[in-house]
Each structure stands twice: as C-alpha cells, then as structure tokens.
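Milestone M4 deliverable, item 7.
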Amino acid sequence: TEFERDAKSKLAADVLFQWAAAERLQEHYKTARKLYLDYVKRFPKNADADDALHFAGEAALLDNKPAEAQKLVDRFRREYPNSDLWAYRDLLQARIDTAGKDTAKYKVAAALLEGVIRKSRIDQTRSLARFHLARTYRLLKDHKQALKAVAPLVAEIRKADKATEFVDALLYAAASQLTEKQYRPAVDSATQYLNLIDKGPQRVWALATRAESYFELGDKTKTDADLDTLIKEFSRDQMAAQTVNRIAEAAYNRKKWDW
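Output delivered:
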C-alpha cells in the first residue's frame, strides 16, 4: 500500500490521522493515543500535528490516565506554543485539573475556563467552556456561580426545545437550583430534561432532583410518582436508593406522618 511504501507521504499522514480519529470515536482511547503520538513523531511539522498531540492528551484523560494527559498537555505547550488550539488546550487542562480531588486545582480550572469564555470568539468553544465551568463550580460547591455559568446553555436548550450537545446543562441547573432552595425552577429544569431524554443513565439524576424538589414544595402526589419511577426504573442504582431514604428521613424528621 501507499502507507507501507512511503510512510512520510501526504496520503500516509491522512490515513494515520483518520485511523487515530476512528479509534477515538470508537472509544479505543489507548490505541488512539498511540496512533496520534505516532503521527506527531512522523509528521511534527504538519498542520495537523498540534491537533494530533491535543487529541492524544484528551484520549489519555478519557482513558482515566490524568497524569499521562498532563504530560501531553505540557508537551503541547513546549512544542506548539503558538497553536491556535490554545482554547482547547486550556479546556483540556481544566478537565485534567478537575479529574482529582484537589480544590486548589478546581480554582485554577475555573480561572482557565473563565478565560476561554472571555477570549474565545467561537460560540461552540465558549459553550463548551461554560458547560465545564458549571461542573467545576459545582465541585467547588459554589452553586450560584454554577447557575450563572450554565444559564446561557439552559436558555439555548429551552429556545430550541430539543436535546442539544449540552443537554446535561439542565441537570447541572436542576441540582444547583435544588441546593439553592429554588425548588420550582429545579422542577422545571429536571422536567425539561426528562421530556427531552426518554432513556439513559442520567435520568436517575433528573428524577431524584425533581422528587426532592416536589417534596420541598409539599407536593406528595408528584413526589410519590417520581419515587415510584425511580424504584421501578433504577432499582439497583445507589442514587435512587439514597433519594428514597433521604426523603423518608426528611418526612419523619418533619413529622409528615401522612407521607
């Protein structure tokens, strides 16, 4: 083949890059990382070399290897300091920083993401940064800032009335609204998510959040309905069990004997 005859040809470069991309899309992250790094080694001056190194770092993170991902981001900074992928580099760095349990790194991640939102001119990039920023502020237990970060994404979903790439923003919003005792908005956010996503593992989070919000609003009928659904659809899920127990304990402590 052309790839075997001339491993330095343009066709060989294109084939190797697309091969790596296909492995990444199939979630074969270890193989994808190896292929992307091979691309960088063979074609370090190609226009796609910085993309390949970035995707290698992302594949490492998705393969649950944050230390390896960090090494590749550091290498990216050294070898491609003027890359126009700076925003995606900072996004990946923020994701690495929030992969562990270091609160100080969460704060660094938040600053990076705020910078992307402020400096990027690409709507999709800013939306991606907002999504990760909301998650980061939730890790920091700063729910007011999480709601501020996620608000534009929630507004876009409600305007489109369809599941966008960032539909999970509704879950972030609902959970933070519940924490902030904004029970009716929490119900609305969780309900919209459930209306848009009719199956999937994240539904348990939406149902749990809505059940607790209905409980706080004093709506026994709707609380019971969501708890029944949680028990039927997610009988083995820890979040479902914890939600049922939490509401039962709250009802007992508040002497809501009819609950």
